[in-house]
Write a structure and sequence with these properties.
The protein has 205 residues and is mainly α. It is built from eight helices and two strands; from the N terminus they run H-H-H-E-H-H-E-H-H-H. A two-stranded parallel sheet has the order 1-2.
């Protein structure tokens, strides 16, 4: 039951700004994906935040900004010393494949390899920087693997759907809109989700 509450809270924090942006874009006459695509995108974003433990403003208030460089790796692949580390890299790649695949499916206008790399890398960078606020490790390897995953997702989508369209897809939706949605989802998580505070309420400590 507790896990369901945490999941619902995280999902709500992400979905509220996402749906607000979607409604505003639709009312202003801009091309948008089908609602089911936007909801899928939001669920994906919430899952990524949950898996990565993205930091929030509440973490920043509690722990401050991480300045211990033992928690920060800026040297590519210097920390890959075991099979477990390699598995972590592969999981980071796999985690961003859906993002790269969804860009040309739901936001085809402007969806190119470089835009997928930029959006995937930018999304990953937001998460890595936020982890400076909750004592999690900030690693350039994660950033590189996440970006690679987004690129692979884009390529796989182009292979599987070279000219086909999924039901409900809007052909004029712009990739820049996807980047705005990601920023909105991150802002929602950053400002509205307090995992530790929720745990205190649930477990009374």
């Amino acid at each position: 039951m507790e896990n369901l509450i945490f999941t619902a809270a995280g999902l709500s924090a992400v979905m509220l700004p996402l749906l607000a942006f979607f409604i505003l874009a639709k009312k202003s006459g801009k091309a948008v994906p089908a609602l089911w695509g936007v909801l899928l995108f939001g669920a994906y974003g919430a899952a990524v935040f949950r898996l990565t433990g993205a930091g929030t403003v509440y973490d920043l208030c509690r722990y401050g900004l991480e300045t211990d460089f033992t928690h920060i790796n800026l040297i590519p692949f210097s920390q890959i010393k075991s099979r477990l580390d390699l598995q972590g890299c592969l999981l980071n790649i796999a985690m961003m494949i859906p993002l790269g695949a969804m860009l040309p499916l739901f936001w085809p206008k402007g969806a190119k390899f470089l835009s997928a790399a930029a959006i995937g890398g930018g999304f990953s960078l937001l998460i890595e920087l936020s982890q400076l606020m909750n004592s999690r490790r900030t690693d350039i390897d994660d950033l590189m693997c996440n970006t690679l995953g987004a690129c692979l997702g884009f390529i796989l989508c182009r292979i599987v759907f070279p000219k086909k369209r999924l039901p409900g897809r809007v052909s004029e939706a712009n990739t820049r809109q996807a980047a705005l949605y990601l920023l909105g989802m991150f802002a929602g998580r950053f400002l509205f989700y307090d995992g530790f505070g929720l745990a205190k309420l649930l477990y009374h400590f």
